[in-house]
Design a protein that fits this description.
This protein is mainly alpha-helical. It has helices at residues 8-26, 31-51, 53-57, 81-107, 113-131, 136-154, 160-192, 210-222, 234-237, 243-252, 254-277, 280-300, 305-325, 329-360, 371-374, 376-390, 396-410, 414-439, 466-484, 487-497, and strands spanning 3-5, 61-70, 73-79. The protein is globular.
């Protein structure tokens, strides 16, 4: 394995930041040009990320040191297989989400659109910064930038509910990162003299001590973006944000930064050997299994579509961590691949929720009776993405769950296998009734008696918004393609655990 010095990682981080002044300068007066800067920056960012793939597939890593403050404390970038997986997903989905945002924000006549696109660009820069971080210090810096940049997005509507959601989001994430996460980083630096990520784990040759055992849980709960119970409550509260923001939170950036950072700690700080010696793997597996099941049960009780999707996200995120901490080849591969599979499937589901709101002004599941006949593209995409979440072949989620199940068997953890089976049944229980209601349940009450009906609305034909529908159809198709042809992400996953 060869380490190659290149400025490309930093350029990939900076691309969307360079778009920020251009977005601000064009502003509300020239919206087409403003949005073009976002799209162009997204394409350039994605191109830079993909250009590094051949070297990573060859087993090399790419590094670039920006600034060194003190021995073992620097801002440094490192591209490896795990970082490339996350960066590929985030950079590609930024392009798709930008197109979706144009349709959504204009159709709903949202205010402060320039601020929205500005914060979006900063958020994606921070996300790639986390993906390409070479150590815990760099990761922490970009993790905090992401928290700050997404607060205005969560409170975008500026309603009392929106402001309250943004406050809770800010307080949860910032307080836990400034206490638990920072404490964990300090402990690692004191013990190891550095916080650099190593392929087999920074601590692999260290003595297994109680301090390192408890320090791991500082990371597990300090990285609250991963939404492990009981530090999950910020996520449902953040659903007051516009749907493209929810998609950003749940599929592209925020929550994925949380689970990705935990995987960095598992693989590149502790390492598989230290995790096993401290018995952290199985302990963590049972903690996240509780989150998987409880979040699924709560999702069943939610009638609001975005709330149900939020609790589904809390559950699905823990699959990623579960796979990693099983410490078996199949389990780790399943957890890593689920980063991609969940991203494309969940962003599709949130796009569909936004389409329902934009076109039909529906937010509750109980309102979706026969909506599939009026919005066939939206609800078909929803059905495909929900199959992926359940784990039905050939959708992407099947690949994840297959490897996770194999990993549980390899680890001889039959209780974990049962958790996977029960959670799959729960996934089906809270997703399939939505499709049934949309396509097969007949309307029994005239539209003018419906609670959310407005006078004259029965004469308005529901017509899907093309700018909103095309991105969700695209991501639904991709979730099928990466289920049928999972080679790209599986190869990178094998490179991570090699």
């Amino acid at each position: 394995m060869q380490t190659i010095l290149s400025i490309k990682p930093m350029l990939a981080v900076l691309t969307s930041l360079l778009a920020v002044p251009l977005i601000l300068l064009t502003g509300e007066k020239r919206p087409n040009l403003r949005e073009s800067w976002s799209i162009l920056a997204g394409i350039v960012k994605f191109s830079l990320v993909i250009s590094m793939a051949p070297l990573i597939f060859s087993g090399h890593t790419i590094e670039y040191t920006l600034v060194t403050f003190y021995q073992g404390i620097d801002i440094k970038f490192r591209v490896d297989a795990l970082g490339l997986i996350f960066a590929t997903i985030a950079s590609f989905l930024w392009i798709v989400t930008t197109f979706y945002s144009i349709g959504y924000m204009r159709a709903n006549k949202e205010h402060a659109q320039t601020r929205y696109y500005t914060c979006f660009a900063i958020s994606l820069s921070a996300t790639i910064g986390v993906a390409f971080s070479a150590n815990l210090i760099t990761l922490f810096v970009f993790y905090e930038i992401l928290s700050l940049a997404t607060v205005p997005l969560v409170g975008h509507k500026e309603t009392p509910e929106g402001i309250e959601g943004a406050k809770k989001y800010f307080l949860y994430l910032m307080s836990l990162s400034k206490t638990l996460l920072l404490s964990g980083i300090i402990i690692i630096y004191i013990v190891a003299g550095t916080t650099d990520f190593k392929s087999y784990g920074l601590l692999q040759h260290m003595q297994a001590t109680p301090l390192l055992f408890w320090a791991f849980f500082l990371f597990l709960f300090g990285l609250a973006k991963a939404a492990i119970m009981p530090v999950h409550n910020w996520l449902p509260s953040a659903m007051v944000a516009p749907t493209p923001v929810s998609a950003l939170l749940h599929a592209v950036a925020v929550v994925k930064v949380g689970v990705f950072s935990i995987l960095r700690v598992v693989f590149n700080i502790y390492g598989i050997d230290m995790m096993a010696r401290l018995h952290l793997g199985i302990t963590t597996a049972y903690i996240v299994s509780f989150t998987i099941l409880m979040a699924s049960f709560i999702a069943l009780s939610k009638d609001n579509l975005k709330a149900r999707l939020a609790y589904s996200t809390i559950s699905q995120l823990s699959y990623i961590i579960l796979g990693a901490v099983l410490l078996t080849p199949a389990g780790m591969a399943g957890g890593i691949v689920h980063i991609a599979n969940h991203a494309f499937s969940k962003i599709t589901l949130f796009f569909c929720a936004g389409s329902l709101y934009t076109t039909a002004h529906k937010t509750e599941i109980s309102e979706l009776t026969a909506i599939g006949k009026k919005m066939p593209w939206t609800m078909t995409a929803f059905f495909i993405a929900s199959l992926s979440m359940i784990g039905v072949p050939p959708a992407a989620g099947f690949v994840s769950k297959w490897y996770l199940a194999l990993g549980a068997i390899q680890a001889n953890q039959i209780p974990i296998l049962m958790v996977l089976l029960v959670s799959t049944v729960l996934n089906a229980a809270y997703f399939l009734p939505i499709t049934y209601k949309a396509f097969f349940q007949k309307e029994t009450v005239p539209s003018h008696f419906l609670p959310n009906h407005h006078e004259g609305e029965e004469h308005v034909e529901i017509k899907e918004n093309l700018m909103v529908v095309i991105p969700l159809v695209l991501t639904a198709i991709i979730s099928l393609i990466i289920g049928i042809f999972p080679v790209y992400f599986l190869t990178l996953a094998q490179e991570v655990i090699r």
